[in-house]
Design goal:
The complex is a heterodimer. Chain A is of the alpha/beta class. Chain A has 8 helices and 13 strands. Chain B folds into 4 domains: 238 residues, P-loop containing nucleotide triphosphate hydrolases (Rossmann fold, 3-Layer(aba) Sandwich), CATH 3.40.50.300; 143 residues, HUPs (Rossmann fold); 105 residues, no CATH class; 168 residues, Heat Shock Protein 90. Helices cover 53% and strands 14% of the residues of chain B. Classes of the chains: A alpha/beta, B alpha/beta.
């Protein structure tokens, strides 16, 4: 079934989100929340139903629960990936990072672990839909008032002070900043920065992230910009612009 | 290619092993007095100054002041006092040194023989133990003490050195340093009295110190050092894969124990070592001599000739044993083969080892055999064209092979005499009867048959005797003139020759046959014993049985008392009682070092037991002790080999039982682990699902409530409520499960109508699943049942909830109640869902079955049906899964007895409880 947005939201074009979950109560609250924020929703209770809806009606983003009565969520994901590149956010009750990595490898773009706050899911959805709306990238310049990153000039400034980053550090930062709010897996980063032969060498990354955080004045324990998803990957938190 | 890589791997392994254990540095001298100890101490002082932890284990200064001064300042381990035959002697304190564990220990005179009663017979064994403990050792040795050079030194100097050190010790060699002194200077030192010589040996040694001897020994020492440096380099290069090492082909050394076997082993080993090839020593038992050896225990009855043969045979076996021991010391393999054809056996052995060379000793001259191409050398040359044949000349002519006693050899036994007489008399009798019908020439055939008969039954000697006897009888009774021994010349001579020829041929045939039988029997004894052991061990299910079976077979086969200890489990008890403190110490030593000890060995010889290690690939599993009768001073190679092979098999069996029990343990642990993780994942899954809904709904309300319409808000509030109740249900299930799992579940029974229970469960279900349609079919006249109402209601609810979960929307859940013919209550709950494959119907009652299918069975803990089974089982009822109505879906059938009690009892129960 398809349901329109609860109220018209003049800012956002009505993106359509497909929710595949067999728990009616979860389906319900996600549906209500999304509609209240001006999105259109499609609801499916089984994997097959979800795939059919996506094929016939289309969606800008899919929220997929892993535990479905008719087929494994992972199978649904693999089937879906054969013909669609729509962003998929997976809902899972499993918290092992091996599982998460396997899911991301299977084609999921991000995940949310149950139980979750609705804002957490919403932030992930927004991160995907925002990049789609504004074309490929956020633009060459990121600026939240404290941190300013100019991807074209290759210049990074903290509190107005220009800091020097090594080539690798800048490469990592730009890789993350290009997809704010989105999870970038460790494998992805390693492959992109060191080549496919170094996909296992996570310690390179650990050292590099530590240095980068230090230079940005960020900390691992209370991250402002670079968030570690342990064992899975990194996420750049784009915050609202602070008016200084 | 493959060989090369294997070679490299081997070399690397050796290198690693060498690095893990202590390393040996040898100060080698050509003769006493060249200053080895001095050089060693000088090096030690240097190291000590650099702060290396050097300790002197033992150093003999022989009262020389120069050496004495070198000792000053170096840490010295006090010597151990040993009392031997009333005298106080001093020895190195091995245990003290092991406990002290220095980086480097100085141990002088590697070839030294320890005072009897010490742990090891020889000092080089002490050094091996130190090395094994990871302590580096500096030691000194003179060239003539090297095992492999023993013969050469003997040839040069004419002195046989008895205190030799096996070359295998040098395997852990790190460094070899030649302490050199020109012969002239050494003699000068000797003349100045600077060289210590034991007084009693001084005279003999004076001859030893001749300039020509010293020069030759010096040469030998230099050669040895060069060889070892060479080998070192080769090994290191091989380890680094720098060099395609030559394809190492085996060198096979054949010995027969008839003189100079040890010489042959040394010579062959030297050839192999020079080529860097592996080597082995074999001997072939033809059985010809085993026959004689078998008679040793009948010594009293045996004739002197046999007696001598038996002694010779014993000596031969001992020589082979010694040669084999030497071969093992030098690092070779050994094997005894059984075959009447020596050449073929050797060729087989060579083929089995992929050998390239066969080394044999020069055999004695056998002109006739050579003419017939029958010598071993000729046969090997003919049949083994692929092999390189090396014939080693021995310093002295080798012992002649003793001839089998035949014509002149020995007197026949009584049994043989009787047989000879009977055969001859019989022949005379038959001939007398046949005389009327047969001609004279034909009569001789009868006697010939008699000779053949005896020959086939006994040995050649008896056959010859029969031949003579028959000839005489034939002559006496049948040849004219009768009743005289006179014969007319030409006929008589022909008869004698014919008889003797027949006797010889038949006798030879017969004795060869017997030899083969004996050879086969010897090989067979071994094979049968091993087979018997294998059969017994195969039946042993645990370690205790392996020990019992192993000990009993060892005892019966070797005629020795056996005791086995593996993994702290030991047996049999009868033998354990005979073990003294000394014996146990030896057993422990064997266990620790993985080497034999006790009697028949060089280590801890005070014990009457012979202890063998039971080894696996990695470690020593245990110890087998064997106590042979005290009068058995010597252990034959056969017995030794049999014992070792049997112990090996026992080890394998023990390992097998250990693996089996480890596997079983792993399986049980795995099962428990699987259940545990299933429970965890189930609990986390089923608690989280409702929690997710509740948190999500509450969060949505809090954040976006103002953006929603009133219906949506109401709907979210309902979600929170419904999911809260669901959570409560899960928790109830878990609690029920815990109660059912523990033994303490007590049923509080009451009389209640089944319709009431079904109704209550249905109402409850409809609260959570409003869309589910439930159809009841309950006969109106059913009497009430006597059960624990709340539990049965829970069971019904669980089954119905399960059915509702799998029902397609719109299809009803049917509840049919009826009374069975054996007066039980039967409740069928059916859905029209996908159904359950037959093979899985039993499993659905397993705990967490649904969980194992992954997230798919998400709507229950997987505990639901297990709980049903528990509850119904507690009421003496049963649960089963059946195909659904009209072949669609599933029917779960609960069968309950009407009550645990008869009505009367129930009433009493009620009265008591009120």
């Amino acid at each position: 079934m398809m349901r329109g947005p609860h109220r018209s939201n003049p800012g956002a074009s009505t993106a359509r989100i497909l929710i595949i979950d067999d728990e009616p109560q979860i389906r319900k609250f996600i549906d209500i929340s999304l509609r209240s924020q001006g999105y259109a929703t499609l609801l499916a209770g089984t994997g097959q139903e979800g795939l059919t809806l996506l094929a016939t009606k289309g969606a800008d983003l899919v929220v997929l629960d892993l535990g479905l009565p008719d087929k494994e969520g992972k199978d649904v994901l693999e089937e879906l990936r054969q013909w669609s590149r729509v962003p998929v956010i997976v809902l899972t009750v499993r918290s092992g990072e091996d599982e998460k990595v396997a899911l991301l490898d299977a084609g999921a773009n991000d995940y949310v672990t149950k139980p979750f706050g609705v804002e957490e899911l919403m932030a992930r959805i927004r991160a995907f839909l925002r990049t789609m709306e504004s074309g490929a990238d956020e633009g060459p310049i990121f600026d939240d008032g404290v941190l300013r990153i100019d991807l074209v000039q290759r210049q990074v400034a903290v509190q107005g002070q220009i800091i020097t980053l090594s080539r690798k550090e800048f490469a990592l930062l730009s890789l993350l900043v290009r997809q704010p709010g989105r999870l970038v897996t460790q494998t992805q980063i390693l492959r992109e920065m060191w080549g496919p032969t170094h996909e296992e060498d996570a310690h390179y990354l650990r050292v590099l992230v530590a240095k980068l955080r230090h230079k940005l004045g960020d900390s691992a324990s209370a991250p402002r910009y670079i968030l570690t998803e342990p064992g899975v990957g990194l996420r750049f938190i784009a915050r609202e612009r602070q008016t200084a | 290619m493959g060989t090369e890589q294997t070679g490299q791997a081997d070399a690397l392994l050796r290198e690693i092993k060498r690095q893990a254990t202590g390393r040996l540095t040898v100060f080698l001298g050509a003769a006493p007095g060249v200053g080895k100890t001095y050089a060693m101490l000088a090096r030690a002082r240097e190291l000590h100054r650099q702060g290396v932890d050097v300790v002197i284990g033992i150093v003999e200064t022989h009262g020389r002041s120069e050496t004495q001064t070198m000792l000053e300042g170096l840490p010295l381990l006090p010597r151990k006092k040993v009392e031997y035959q009333g005298r106080q002697l001093e020895e190195m304190d091995l245990d003290g040194l092991l406990a002290r564990k220095p980086a480097i220990a100085l141990v002088d005179e590697l070839a030294h023989r320890n005072v009897p009663g010490s742990r090891h017979e020889r000092r080089w064994q002490d050094v091996e133990e130190l090395l094994s403990a990871g302590i580096d050792v500096y030691t000194t040795i003179n060239i003539q003490h090297l095992e492999s050079l023993n013969d050469v030194v003997h040839q040069i100097t004419g002195i046989r050195v008895s205190e030799t050190v096996p070359d295998a010790v040098f395997e852990r060699l790190r460094d070899i340093r030649l302490v050199d002194l020109p012969a002239r200077e050494l003699i000068e030192r000797l003349n100045q009295g600077k060289v210590y010589l034991p007084e009693q040996a001084a005279q003999a040694l004076q001859a030893f110190f001749s300039p020509s001897n010293l020069t030759a020994l010096r040469e030998l020492a230099m050669q040895t050092v060069a060889e070892h440096v060479d080998a070192d380099l080769r090994e290191e290069r091989a380890a680094r894969g720098l060099e395609g090492i030559s394809i190492q082909r085996h060198v096979l050394i054949a010995i027969d124990g008839r003189g100079h076997s040890e010489y042959l082993v040394r010579a062959g080993a030297m050839i192999a070592r020079r080529r860097g090839a592996p080597w082995s020593v074999v001997t072939v038992e033809t059985g010809r001599w085993a026959d004689a050896a078998l008679h040793t225990d009948e010594m009293n009855r045996a004739t002197p000739a046999l007696n001598k043969m038996a002694r010779d045979e014993q000596q031969r076996l001992m020589e082979i044993d010694k040669a084999f021991a030497l071969a093992r010391n030098l690092g070779g393999e050994t094997e005894v083969m059984h075959n009447t054809d020596v050449a073929q056996a050797l060729l087989d052995a060579a083929a089995a080892r992929d050998a390239r060379s066969i080394v044999i000793g020069r055999t004695r001259e056998r002109p006739i055999a050579r003419l017939l191409n029958r010598t071993l050398t000729q046969q090997l040359l003919q049949r083994g064209a692929r092999y390189e044949l090396t014939i080693i000349g021995t310093p002295q002519a080798r012992q002649r092979r003793p001839r089998l006693p035949d014509i002149t050899g020995e007197r026949p036994t009584w049994r043989e005499l009787v047989l000879i007489l009977l055969a001859s008399l019989g022949a005379v009798g038959v001939a007398a009867l046949a005389e009327r019908t047969l001609g004279l020439q034909d009569l001789s055939m009868i006697f010939l048959v008699a000779v053949m008969l005896v020959a086939s039954r006994t040995r050649m000697a008896s056959a010859v005797m029969t031949a003579i006897l028959c000839f005489l009888a034939y002559n006496f009774f049948f040849i004219e003139p009768r009743y005289t021994f006179l014969i007319s010349a030409h006929r008589g001579v022909a008869t004698v020759v014919l008889f003797l020829a027949a006797a010889l041929i038949a006798g030879r045939l017969a004795s060869r046959l017997r030899m083969q039988v004996v050879a086969l029997r010897a090989a067979n004894t071994h094979a049968t014993a091993m087979q018997n052991l294998g059969r017994r061990l195969a039946k042993a299910a645990d370690l205790g049985q392996v020990i019992a079976a192993g000990a009993s077979v060892l005892q019966s086969t070797l005629h020795a008392e056996a005791w086995i200890r593996i993994n702290e489990e030991s047996g049999p008890v009868t033998s354990a009682g005979h073990l003294g403190e000394k014996d146990l110490a030896a057993a422990d030593w064997t266990q620790r070092h993985g080497q034999a000890s006790g009697r028949y060995t060089d280590t801890l010889t005070g014990s009457a037991w012979w202890f063998l290690p039971v080894s696996s690939d990695k470690d020593t599993l245990g110890v087998v002790g064997l106590r042979f009768p005290p009068n058995m001073g010597h252990l034959s190679f056969e017995q030794r080999r049999l014992a070792e092979n049997m112990v090996e098999d026992i080890g394998q069996a023990a390992l097998r039982t250990r693996l089996v029990s480890e596997l079983e343990l792993a399986r049980v642990t795995g099962e428990t682990e699987r259940l545990r993780s299933a429970l965890l994942s189930s609990v986390s899954h089923d608690l989280r699902s409702p929690l997710s809904s509740m948190i999500g709904a509450a969060d949505s309300l809090a954040r976006y409530g103002k953006d929603m319409g009133p219906e949506d808000r109401q709907s979210l509030l309902e979600t929170i409520h419904v999911e809260g109740e669901r959570l409560d249900r899960y928790i109830q299930n878990l609690l029920d499960m815990t109660r059912l799992g523990q033994q303490g579940l007590t049923l509080t029974r009451d009389w209640i109508g089944i319709d009431e229970l079904v109704g209550s469960a249905s109402r409850r279900l409809q609260r959570y699943e409003p869309n589910v349609r439930i159809e009841h079919e309950i006969p109106p006249d059913l009497p009430p049942i006597h059960v624990h109402p709340a539990l049965i209601e829970q069971a019904l609810f669980n089954v119905m909830e399960n059915a509702a979960k799998f029902s397609p929307s719109g299809e009803p859940v049917r509840v049919q109640v009826q009374r069975t013919e054996d007066n039980r209550l039967q409740i069928d709950i059916s859905d029209r869902g996908p159904g359950i494959p037959e093979q899985e119907r039993r499993r659905i009652f397993d705990m967490f079955y649904s969980v194992e299918r992954g997230d798919r069975g998400k709507q229950g803990t997987g505990l639901g049906l297990t709980i049903v089974q528990g509850i119904v089982g507690a009421h003496m009822g049963s649960v089963e899964a059946l195909p659904g109505l009209e072949g669609k879906g599933t029917t779960i059938r609960l069968t309950l007895p009407w009550g645990g009690y008869s009505n009367q009892e129930a009433k009493e129960h009620d009265e008591r409880s009120t």
